[in-house]
Amino acid sequence: MQGIDHLVIMFKELEPAIAAYRDLGFTVVPGGEHPAGTHNALIAFADGSELELIAFKRPNDQHRWWDVAQAGGGFIDFCVVSDDVAADIRAFRDAGAKVNDPVPGGRVRTDGVKLSWVTASAPKPFMFQVPFFIQDHTPREERIPKQKNHANGVAGIASITVATDDVARVRGWWSPVLHQPGADIQRDEIDAAGVRFIAGTHALDFVGPRSASSPIDAWLKARGPSPYGIALKTSSGKTGPLDEAKAGTRITLV
Asked: Which pLDDT score is estimated for 39?
């Protein structure tokens, strides 16, 4: 496992999301349509990762993201890059986390180019605490936009924060897969504690609430274990949280 491939941010409508992210200083490239009823736009970074802004163009209550979209969307899932997807699936399964077999996927870019891949994802209760995997059939460079410079200076993903109701269990899944014990962390700003893993250049924080007043506690009650926030690396010197109303989720520049 070599790091984050992309982070998925769900919106009710795609075009307003594109406008909002451009206003936040990102270069946004329309991506195209998926057969499952979604369409997307992409924000690619110099570190090889990207943000995927996505929305349902057609209803699909069989889609794994449909229920989360109806609950408010936002940062809903994360995908990792692997040089051996089959081995990483086996590693998670051996660690006690179920991951489904790969299934074919793809989309048609706005210029008509057809992209294809396979993905493998975890069912509940592992979903959103275990990543989904992607293995490209068409070249990955055709899937990732070439425009990687942004007015806000963002160059890549620093970390993600995932809310969990059982840090020890999640640690037990991830530690053998990444061959790391994980580092104990305290996140005072959200009154949470948990474990941090490093995948490539990206930090993965899995945290639970330290008290009932933690926003993580409220998040777990409302959404269950799932992605909570994103930190992006910037060289502009301007750091801090982005406008959440525009970003549709919690994004901090560091």
From this structure: 96
Q: pTM of the full predicted structure?
A: 0.95
Q: How many CA atoms lie less than 13 Å away from 82 in the CB half-sphere?
A: 22
Q: What is the rounded distance in angstroms from the CA atom of residue 129 to the CA atom of residue 114?
A: 30
Q: What is the pLDDT of residue 83?
A: 78
B/e letters for 208-223, b = 16+ CB within 10 Å, e = fewer, are bbbeeebbbbebbeeb
Q: Are 175 and 181 in contact (CB under 8 A)?
A: yes
Residue 82, pLDDT score: 79
Specify whether the CB–CB gap between 69 and 79 falls below 8 A.
Answer: no
Residue 92 φ/ψ, nearest 5 degrees: -65, -40
**45: phi then psi, degrees, rounded to nearest 5:** -120, 160
Q: What are 96-116's pLDDT values in tens digits?
A: 999 999 999 999 999 999 999
**Residue 37's pLDDT band (boundaries 50, 70, 90)?**
very high
* Lookup: tokens for 183: 């580092």
139: left (phi over 0), alpha (psi -120 to 50) or beta: beta
